[in-house]
Write a structure and sequence with these properties.
The protein has two domains: 12-74, no CATH class; 90-224, no CATH class. It is built from nine helices and no strands. The protein has helices at 12-27, 32-51, 56-59, 64-74, 90-122, 127-156, 163-180, 182-191, 198-224. The protein is elongated and about 70 Å long.
Length: 233
């Protein structure tokens, strides 16, 4: 099978997906020679598919780890070793993001809030100004937690197709979930006359967590929507 001499420049998303496939083979112990051969054949087939009108988004929608495993097996490379890559289940997705968000919250509590309080003590502000500063500080802390969640997902599931987009979506939906939880949480606090007893505080925390998890579930659904993809030869 031949390819036309005039070919468009490599699509960066396609190259990134191919790199993820090759990285999977390397982690699984596929020799450099076999890896180079498989990658060359894969690049050729993908270029042909693009030249025939296939959309890049459809070609890279398959999970690169699963695709790499099937292609290696189809070529008789079934005895390669290496650790099993984590499966991107709903539970693993949510737990990973929440652990990352917790790490971000701890980092904010240790580094960001003490700095903010020092600034608040050093800069004379009105009562309203202090309120605006406090809200801004909370927003920055929320962004730090969302960024940690996105980074945790990006690292753990780095060989999965579209994980960059999904991790960004997870961070965005995590922020949206937190923002959406403000109204019901404040309504509950007002209804209970801003009671600060442990059961009330735990209920408010549970509301925030529920909205954040709902946001993460939405991001995971976007990632796992069924789409077509290339089939190993």
């Amino acid at each position: 099978m031949t390819v036309s001499a005039e070919q468009p420049g490599p699509d960066p998303h396609l190259q990134s997906w191919i790199a993820a496939v090759s990285s999977y083979w390397q982690r699984r112990g596929v020799s450099e020679e076999d890896r180079a051969r498989l990658q060359a054949e894969l690049e050729r087939d993908l270029r042909l598919a693009v030249a025939e009108g296939a959309a890049v988004e459809d070609l890279i929608s398959a999970d690169p780890g699963e695709f790499a495993r099937e292609l290696a097996e189809a070529n008789g490379l079934t005895d390669v070793s290496g650790r099993t890559d984590p499966v991107l289940t709903t539970t693993a997705f949510v737990v990973t993001a929440m652990v990352g968000a917790l790490a971000g919250a701890i980092a904010s509590a240790v580094l960001l809030y003490p700095l903010g309080l020092r600034v608040l003590d050093a800069v004379p502000l009105t009562y309203n100004g202090e309120g605006v500063f406090a809200v801004g500080l909370a927003v920055v802390a929320s962004c730090v937690s969302a960024a940690f969640a996105a980074c945790a997902l990006r690292w753990r599931f780095r060989l999965h197709a579209g994980v960059r987009r999904t991790s960004l979506l997870a961070g965005a939906f995590l922020l949206l979930g937190g923002a959406a939880s403000i109204a019901p949480t404040m309504a509950l606090a007002a209804r209970l006359d801003y009671n600060s007893t442990a059961p009330v505080v735990l209920t408010e925390v549970a509301i925030v967590l529920a909205f954040c998890i709902a946001g993460l579930l939405a991001a995971h659904w976007v990632h796992t929507r069924p789409t077509g993809g290339p089939t190993p030869a």
